[in-house]
Amino acid sequence: MREFFENIKEKILGAVSKINDSYEFKPALSEIEDSPVSPLGRFTFWTIVFLIITTVLWLTLGQIDIVASARGIVIPDGEAKIIQPLETGAIEEILVKEGDFVKKGQILIKLDSSASDVKLHSVEKNLKQSKIEAQRLKATARGKGLLTKESNGKQDEELAIQQELFEQESRLFKSLMQSRKMQIEEANNEIKSLEAQKRDYYFQLQNALDRQRRMKKVIDIIAYNEYQDICDKVNNLRENVSRLNSEILKAKARKAELVAQMAQAEAEFKTQKFEDLAQKQKEIKELEANKEQIDFSNKKQRITAPCDGYIDKLMVHTTGGIVTPAQELIALTPVEQPLIIKAQVLNRDVGFIKPGMNVSVKIDTFDFQKYGILNGTLKSISKNSIEDEKLGPVYEVYIQPDTKTFKIDGREEKIATGMTLNAEINIGKRRIIEFFIYPLIKYLDEGMSVR
């Protein structure tokens, strides 16, 4: 090939060097007849031949990249964090704007918590009252005093009321126990009286029995009526002792019953108080759980940042506006979140691309003719297409850029979330001549297939 071009070059130069101007001074007709063919024509001819051959060789051997173009946008890898409210509320204050940098835990939006504050106050009041009532029930059941002073030394009205109830219950209980004790004491006195009578009758009975034995020995010399009187007296005394024994047993049984009733009354009183205490403690636990729930809800009325990052998008802007559970309020891009490119590939191109292909990314913000492009790698392709209003069916692809900065006037500028771009996926190479041949072949093929 090189020899071919060198031969052409030599012929052109040789033709130019052989130009003879000896005929220029002859008559015009003779000059025309005798003048040899102009070497400029030959030069022009061989120049055209050279250009044609060069063009054909360039079209045949030259190759250009085939790319699939796709519009896209820079997004955080894993998407932005969407912040939502837990429950319905009215916006009290919006503390950030789009583009702001926020720290983890920083309050972004305040919701009106007045309604929940009222609930919290009511629950706290009921909880305080229930705890004091539980303290009273415990003190009553255990028989211990109830404190009536708070740590600050001031009289608490509710605590004073519970103290008064405690004292009333204590007085009633003591009165009941005192009444039972008096009944038991009366039974004791009755038993003592009966036992004293029994001892007296028993002493008389012993004396009567002694006399009866002595009189029996001399029954022959005494009057029968006298002996009969002593026998009747012994029988009467025995009946009285027996009667008193029976009455003493009944009195002791009555006393035992009174003691049992007293113990039962005391046990029932304490049992009732402990049952009331258990019920009150259950109520306290429910109130504490309710308070924790309201506290949690109140905390959620302060919409905070879950991590350090930038406010990518603010979906609400009206103070006093109503938000509902799961409503999207803020899109937050984490500061440490890596960036990735999401692009939409046309349906006709998706069959020619695969993960791992090289991609040239032209960011709209930075003129690629002046600042260059970003190189990247095709990371993944969605399995299903989505319908785009303008482009029709498209497939989402994700591109990992090799670098994320441009050098602008001596300083480095990073690409940011939301920047639009054009991604060119390199799907192969094609000879230049094919761009001219394929349309012709397609035209001929379609023309021959028409009836």
From TrEMBL:
<protein>
    <submittedName>
        <fullName>HlyD family type I secretion periplasmic adaptor subunit</fullName>
    </submittedName>
</protein>
<feature type="domain" description="AprE-like beta-barrel">
    <location>
        <begin position="339"/>
        <end position="427"/>
    </location>
</feature>
<dbReference type="InterPro" id="IPR050739">
    <property type="entry name" value="MFP"/>
</dbReference>
<keyword id="KW-1003">Cell membrane</keyword>
<dbReference type="GO" id="GO:0009306">
    <property type="term" value="P:protein secretion"/>
</dbReference>
<feature type="coiled-coil region">
    <location>
        <begin position="177"/>
        <end position="297"/>
    </location>
</feature>
<dbReference type="GO" id="GO:0005886">
    <property type="term" value="C:plasma membrane"/>
</dbReference>
<keyword id="KW-0812">Transmembrane</keyword>
<keyword id="KW-0175">Coiled coil</keyword>
<feature type="transmembrane region" description="Helical">
    <location>
        <begin position="43"/>
        <end position="61"/>
    </location>
</feature>
<dbReference type="Pfam" id="PF26002">
    <property type="entry name" value="Beta-barrel_AprE"/>
</dbReference>
<comment type="similarity">
    <text>Belongs to the membrane fusion protein (MFP) (TC 8.A.1) family.</text>
</comment>
<keyword id="KW-0813">Transport</keyword>
<keyword id="KW-0472">Membrane</keyword>
<dbReference type="InterPro" id="IPR058982">
    <property type="entry name" value="Beta-barrel_AprE"/>
</dbReference>
<dbReference type="InterPro" id="IPR010129">
    <property type="entry name" value="T1SS_HlyD"/>
</dbReference>
<dbReference type="Pfam" id="PF25917">
    <property type="entry name" value="BSH_RND"/>
</dbReference>
<dbReference type="InterPro" id="IPR006144">
    <property type="entry name" value="Secretion_HlyD_CS"/>
</dbReference>
<keyword id="KW-0997">Cell inner membrane</keyword>
<feature type="domain" description="Multidrug resistance protein MdtA-like barrel-sandwich hybrid">
    <location>
        <begin position="88"/>
        <end position="330"/>
    </location>
</feature>
<keyword id="KW-1133">Transmembrane helix</keyword>
<dbReference type="InterPro" id="IPR058625">
    <property type="entry name" value="MdtA-like_BSH"/>
</dbReference>
